[in-house]
Amino acid sequence: MKQIEEQLFALQDLKYRDFHARLMPGYEKENIIGVRTPALRKLAKELAKKMAADQKIAAFLTELPHKYYEENNLHAFLIEQIAKDFDTALSMTEEFLPYIDNWATCDSFTPKAFKKDLNRLYNKTLEWMKSADTYTVRYGIVTQLQLFLDDEFRPEMLEILAQIHRDDYYINMAIAWYYSFALIKQYDSTVGLFEVQTLDKWIHNKSLQKAIESYRIDKETKDYLRSLKRK
């Protein structure tokens, strides 16, 4: 842990730390080192190559919780690097999820191996969304957004998410983010939810706002979506 911590501080950018801390209100600034994501991903690649010969690196993945934000992100990026099969990716992700303590780490990683069994992954996202833990729920939603809104889209998910009622900003923001992308990618299946006002008001309006901000929706459609906003 100390060796990896030293490597992270060697990559420190204090101006970036101050900037990033403002994006994470409520997160302790002293727990942010200030390492840019490309540098973290590069370090993860280097460590993954050395893991077989250096048990200290493997130990880093078991020494939870981590202290620093960048340690959490490095952990996430290492999962992506070393989890080449579905079962390993899933196991390592589920071991890590209870220790995620911020939205940025939560949204930062989706192992490529997940695509090898999307049916099992779909069912896992449903389990994660029933968790009592904020970021486990959010991870399930974000995984749906990233992997299940194109060819693997299942319209039932629109109704499943509508049944989540949690007084938690980071969960509700993820739901709104999902619906905004659903309006972009699966408009015909999604717009009806907004026409009949199925969603909680805040999620309804935030989803429309995010969709309207997208360059991938034409002006006529944006004008119609604006008409669906709730007062």
UniProtKB/TrEMBL annotation:
InterPro entries: ARM-type_fold (IPR016024), DNA_alkylation (IPR014825). It comes from the Bacteria. Pfam families: DNA_alkylation (PF08713). Transmembrane segments: none annotated. PANTHER family: ARMADILLO-TYPE FOLD, DNA ALKYLATION REPAIR PROTEIN. This is DNA alkylation repair protein. It comes from Anaerotruncus colihominis.
